[in-house]
Amino acid sequence: MFDKAKKQQEQPKENESTKEVKKEPSKEELLEEGLKRAKEEAEAWKNKYYMAFADTQNLRKSLEEDHREALRYRAEGFLESLLPALDSFHMALEATPNSKEALNYQQGFNFIYKQILASLESEGVSELSPKVGDLFDPSFMHAIDVAPYEEGKDGKVAKVYAKGYKLHDHIVSPAKVVVFAKKKEETKDEIKDGNKEETKEAEHKA
Length: 206
What we know:
The chain is an alpha+beta fold. It is built from 5 helices and 6 strands.
């Protein structure tokens, strides 16, 4: 009987343990969890939006800058095609007329040339006009020939063959000039060495 009573006392404990089940989350907890996930997703989408917006703004600025540059330098191709005519005008205006009729023609050419320049200047074109005696500047001059050296004039402009032109800050065509420069002269030793080489070549051929 003692064993039977003991088993009856232990039975309720076993029943209590079997009745223990997993606790279901309450509605409040479910709502809080859903709200948390929604906030995380909203934050992620907000960051993506800001990144996409920044990329769009950068692209817009880049396209606007390209458009401004295209408008700013739209006349460059036209100016390049016009250069031969401008050079011809310059040569005609630099020539000394040998008659009254030639002088009248030159004055007419000068009037037309100024009209063309005025139109080009409205598009941002400006002349590069070095003068005789200016120090040669390779940044906007191109030396097409060398003039015999004169004392104190080494590296200076001897003649302006054609003016240069630039569009805003782009040099479309440098000014073409002739420059004073010393010519390299052979020394006596260089001449002797040259003669020796020629003698050796002749002996070798013989």
